[in-house]
Amino acid sequence: MRLPSGVVTVLAVVLNTGVGHAAPAPSQGSPPPPLPPGVSATLWKLSVPPGSEPTPEKVALGEKLFREKRLSADNTVACMTCHEPELGFTDGKALSEGIGNQKVTRNSPTVLNAVFNATQFWDGRSATLEDQAKLPILNPREMGMPNPEAVVAKVRAIPEYAAEFKKVFGRDVNYDDLAAAIAAFERMQFSGNARFDKFITGDAKALSASEKNGWALFNGKARCNSCHAGNAVSPLFSDQKFHNIGVAAHKQDFIALARKGVQVVRTGDEKQIDELALQTEFSELGRFLVTKQENDVGSFKTPTLRNVGITGPYMHDGSLTTLWDVMDHYNKGGVPNPFLDGGMQRLGLTEPEIDDLVSFLFALTDSKYDKLNKEQLAKQRARRNNRPERDTEVALGKKGHLGDLAPNPDLHVKNPADLGIYGDVTPVAPSTQSKPR
After folding, report:
1. Are 290 and 296 in contact (CB under 8 A)?
2. 161-193 residue pLDDT tens
3. Pick the CATH number of 41-187 from 1.10.760.10, 3.40.30.10, 2.60.40.10, 2.40.240.10
4. For a surface tag, which of 29, 195, 209, 213 has the fewest beta carbons within 10 Å of its beta carbon?
5. Considering 53, 68, 130, 142, which one is annotated as catalytic?
């Protein structure tokens, strides 16, 4: 595949670090660290605020704090409790649990590639990784510490941390530096070495015929790329925007809830919004908690699709167990509600097409998680016939009306999967594409 000049940096060296361990970090002002093929070096530099560049010492301290249960009120919960490195920095649960086995009302998103998020959390209530690191420590249902001062006093009383903060930051422990260290560790958790990355950068054999067909459907009839486009400048497969796709409509009267929310929510009060999001019925209002704008009712951030095979259950509330459930939800156009995103419509996907799309989505998992990815695929495939979200009549237009279908391209004429990452009109290699169904 031919690469335009000036973009060679995108194809950087693949990470050699083990799962969950920090890679060698750059000093301030130096080039970005070695990055996997699916991560742009230019984007990494743009995503790291000046002065926040990870240093080896800061990253090491951050990893230690990320794993530290003494940051919680009862010494039982760490950041890692809900973001387990070996599970793709998630916890595998529908809803996460904090101190005293208290459940929150949101599913834990992955930390992998969080450095590229325009905002943090499902509702975007934090602008930076530093802000994001502070809130779970103080949330009553997560780590339960009463205030930043109590956190600082507790950490200062641990001799090893008192010494390390002096060494890394040149001063005593404070809450901002604690969050900065955790954020530095999180900024080094890249992921972009999936079979898809090998395929899109020239290895035509990296994907199976079913996965290639799934990629073509992803960019065509299934319309996934409307919000989950994946390319050199969008390595997360996310538009970083907020959408109401009807997931929360299963259980809430949005209009009544929004009216109550207007009276309760204090715009800009990050701590209150954090507690409402994780502890109350207002959680289902999503982005509305942050903006108090009607068009944000029930809207949640488009999640990354990288490593999606290992980061289920899915959606903000973990209500969809498998990727077949996810495809069924979209295939019928979501769940109708007054605030449903205008882009939601039936897809008309057949069962073989859904199977191909799910196969493709599992090809987005980083190679370092291959074993877990295969295990999760087997578990999800075993549930393939248990499909609570499936409504074939709606999806195929036999009931209701949710718009016209996207085109189903003739893959024998031109397969979108052969375009390559830069839209090169020359196919990567002769395709062994399966026939369209």
Report:
1. yes
2. 999 999 999 999 999 999 999 999 999 999 999
3. 1.10.760.10
4. 29
5. 142
